[in-house]
Structure formats: structure tokens, C-alpha cells
Write a structure and sequence with these properties.
Distance between the termini: 54 Å
Low-confidence stretches: 1-6
CATH architecture of the largest domain: 3-Layer(aba) Sandwich
Radius of gyration: 21 Å
Largest sheet: 7 strands, mixed
Number of helices: 12
CATH topology of the largest domain: Rossmann fold
Length: 297
């Protein structure tokens, strides 16, 4: 593995590197950089990487975390949407032979990962047979769709170590009936288990964000695949939560008709007055197995 003379120096405050290049951060893109080298190392260490792993990072930034990941693993693909940051990271990481930088939006749309990222990941998996891990200080603006798309992705992902805002971590680990419980909770629980590893205060980042963050570990269930059954499940989850204050029977009646609204709760032993926020993942799966696509939303 080749190493640069001083790739992405950790001890330098990101503010100084940004200003030296005449770059201005953009809040819209969630550009908040971890400041302390020890916090960057905590993230890299949490991923428990080995030389046979292949890592995907979303949001290269200055390349400081990228450099740490490259020290610990066989190959890193890092994606950066901002051309200015991409140029800085390219300078910082230019001597690392096991890093590939992509300048593009990670998401082509809300429901699809950029095909350039998919192609690069599949190509890397052909050469590096180790498991794919995602390690990222995830831009706040795309956290929820990025997580769901990664779990649904045709590229096999084993584990995700993601720095997300605290509200997202709360939603990922919520239980039925809690105020944070919603579609993100259910989709992710279908595919994976979630563990909150540690919190990160607002002051750990620059620019300082409005909320604190947490590192979560998402472990994909190996037995889950994208099937027609999952697509039906996804439609049921989306439909029921789009009317989350309505009772189950009422939403089923509006979307699937009177017969379905009567038959499904009765067959499953579910109270027809229950709301979506009280249903478990198993409940949503059972409803989807008995319901045709909704007639309307």
C-alpha cells in the first residue's frame, strides 16, 4: 500500500484547511467536519477494519477520515458531491494507492444510488473479495434515504457505521408506540439490526451544527433479499404511515376496499382501531402478505 507524505493531516483544524483553499462550506450539503483527531479515530476504530475489508465512505470532505480508513483496510471508495472539496481531498489523498475518489452525488434520486457509485462498488468487489462496510460522517441532508437505499442496494453491504444527527439515531432505534417510531424505523428494522455506539456533541464539529450526533452500527440481516414481497411491504408501510393518525381499518378501507379492511385485521388478530405507529415490523409484513397493491393512497 502506498502512502502519501502527509495525507490529510489530522492535527490541522478543518477551518484552516478550508480557508487556505478559499473554500466556503455549504450548510445545504451538511458540511460539518469532525475536528479532533481522537474523534476521527474513534469512528475508524469502531468499524473494526481489517486488510481484507472494502470500505465505502459517503462524504469525503477533506479526506481526514478517508486517510484513517485507508490505513486500516484494503480498499476505500469515497464519494464527494462538492467539486471544491473533491479537489482538496484529491490533493490530500493523492499518494494513497488504495483509495478511489468519486465526485458525484451519492444518490441519483431519493430511491436510487448513483449508478457510477454502484458500478465502482461492483468493480471493487470483483477485485477485493472481503466484505463491504460503509463508514461515514453522513451528510445530514441525505441520511434517511441514503440508509434505506444502502440496505436495499444490489451491492451486498455487511455493516454500516454512520455518524448521524441524534434525531435520526432516535428514529433508527425507536420502539413501536414511541414518538420517533416511523417509516425509517420499520424499513431499517426489516433489513438490519441497529446499535447506538456513542454520542458526539455539537462542539465536536466545525461549523458547529444545531444538533448533536451519534455513531450507529447497522448490521444487515444476511437472510434478507429484495423480493416482490418486500415491495408489497414497502407499499404498505408507506401507505399506512402517510395516514399515521388514522386507524388501520380506515386506511385499509381507503386504499384497498371494504373487504380487505374487514378481513385483514380479523385474520391477523390485530385491533382494527390501531394506528401505524403501534404496529411491529412483523405486523406490517403480515398485512402486506394479505393485501394487493392499494387502489389509492
Amino acid at each position: 500500500m502506498q502512502a502519501a507524505d502527509s495525507p490529510a493531516p489530522l492535527d490541522r483544524h478543518p477551518r484552516d484547511a478550508i480557508r487556505e483553499h478559499g473554500f466556503r462550506t455549504r450548510k445545504r450539503l451538511g458540511q460539518n467536519f469532525l475536528v479532533a483527531p481522537d474523534n476521527l479515530r474513534r469512528v475508524a476504530d469502531a468499524a473494526d477494519l481489517s486488510g481484507r475489508d472494502f470500505v465505502l465512505e459517503i462524504g469525503t470532505g477533506l479526506g481526514r477520515l478517508t486517510a484513517l480508513l485507508a490505513e486500516r483496510t484494503g480498499y476505500v471508495i469515497s464519494v464527494e458531491i462538492d467539486r471544491g472539496l473533491f479537489r482538496i481531498a484529491s490533493e490530500n489523498l493523492g499518494g494513497l494507492g488504495n483509495v478511489r475518489l468519486l465526485c458525484c452525488d451519492f444518490l441519483e434520486s431519493k430511491h436510487r444510488i448513483n449508478p457510477h457509485v454502484t458500478a465502482a462498488a461492483l468493480e471493487a468487489l470483483n477485485s477485493h473479495q472481503g466484505p463491504l462496510k460503509v463508514v461515514s460522517n453522513l451528510p445530514y441532508a441525505i441520511s434517511s434515504p441514503a440508509i434505506v437505499n444502502l440496505l436495499e442496494w444490489e451491492v451486498p453491504v455487511g455493516e454500516l457505521y454512520l455518524m448521524v444527527q441524534r434525531a435520526v439515531a432516535d428514529r433508527l432505534t425507536a420502539e413501536p408506540g414511541g414518538k420517533e417510531y416511523g417509516p425509517l424505523t420499520v424499513y431499517v428494522a426489516y433489513w438490519a439490526t441497529v446499535e447506538r455506539l456513542f454520542a458526539m456533541p455539537r462542539a465536536a464539529f466545525w461549523p458547529v451544527p444545531e444538533v448533536s450526533s451519534a455513531l450507529v452500527k447497522i448490521t444487515r440481516r444476511p437472510d434478507r433479499t429484495r423480493t416482490a414481497g418486500y415491495d408489497a411491504f414497502s407499499k404498505v408501510v408507506g401507505t399506512l404511515f402517510s395516514h399515521r393518525r388514522k386507524m388501520l381499518a380506515g386506511v385499509l378501507r381507503a386504499g384497498w376496499g371494504e373487504e380487505v379492511a374487514r378481513r385483514i385485521p380479523e385474520k391477523l388478530g390485530i385491533d382494527p382501531r390501531v394506528r401505524a405507529e403501534k404496529l411491529t415490523v412483523a405486523d406490517f409484513e403480515a398485512i402486506a402478505s394479505l393485501a394487493d397493491p392499494p387502489e389509492s393512497a
